[in-house]
Structure formats: structure tokens, C-alpha cells
Amino acid sequence: LESTSGPLAAGGGRMGTPVESGVAATSVAEPAAKAAHIGAAGNLSQPVADLIYDHCVAYAELGRISHQTDAIVLGRQPTSPEWPRLEEACDHERALLIKLCAAPAGTDAERHAKASYLLAIFDDDEPSSEHVAAILGSMMCGRVS
After folding, report:
1. 8 A C-beta contact, residue 3 and residue 56
2. 90 against 41, higher pLDDT
């Protein structure tokens, strides 16, 4: 990681940290809350609801740690012990996002919840080829050609 550019975020390409881009965890909280509501209504499977929730939590944690290790906020460069926490949070968030992208959605409610959440996550950023491949692969599950 370069000390001046921040961490590599989900997807392998450089995305701004939540501090740099002004993205708050609350920007994904609404779709996550909607997904939880749909899940509570019985229209969303527990695994899909759990994936959305788990990613939302990890994304918020990444934002918190990113803020705590931001050179502008700190008024100094992050120290060597601070970087591993950030890298671990980034890796965890990325793994959960890929897992969510790859998760098959079996109903219209699940497809809507997953798509709404992913659109909020990617917002103005393009998903990586790994994310796109996982999403497309999830659409093939259970399909017979």
C-alpha cells in the first residue's frame, strides 16, 4: 500500500476510501435495511439477507478504520501497526462483497434486494471484472440452456 494513496478497496482497483470519497456507511444502510425488511417479510432467504447484512457491517467497519488511519484526519502518516488493521478490514470487506456478488438470487425479491444493495455500493465506481464475473455467474445458477 502506498502511504499517500490509501488502501486498495474491494475489487482490486483503487477506489477512494470512505473518507476520501465522502461515502458514508449510511449510503448503504438504506438498501441493507430494505433487504432486512424484505427478509423479515419472508420474501428474502436468510442466506441472502445475511450476506447483505454482513457486507454492510464490514463496509461500515472499513469506513471507521479508514477514517482512523487517514493521514489528513490523523495529521500524520499512519504508523506501521495501523496499516495491518486497515488491510485486514479491506480484505474482509472485499471477500464479503465477492461472496455477495456470487450468491444466487432465487426470487424477484432477492434479485431486487441484491441489485439495489450492489448499486448503492458501487454508486459511481465501476465494479471490477471479478465482481462482474461473480454477478454473471450467480445469474447462471440453476439455469438450463
Report:
1. no
2. 90
Q: Which residues contact 33 (CB under 8 A, 6 or more apart)?
A: none
Cell of 130: 471479478
108-122 vs 26-40: helix crossing angle, rounded to 10 = 170
Q: What is the distance between the alpha carbons of residues 35 and 41, in angstroms, rounded to a whole number?
A: 10
Q: In the numeric block, which cell numbers belong to residue 14? A: 483503487
| Cβ contact 113:31 at 8 Å | yes
Of residues 3, 97, 19, the one with CA closest to residue 63: 19
For 58-75, the pLDDT digits (tens) are 999 999 999 998 888 888
CB 15 within 8 A of CB 125: yes
Tens digits of residue pLDDT in 103-143? 999 889 899 999 999 999 998 889 999 999 999 999 886 55
- Measured between alpha carbons, how far is residue 21 from residues 15, 82, 134 in Å? 8, 20, 25
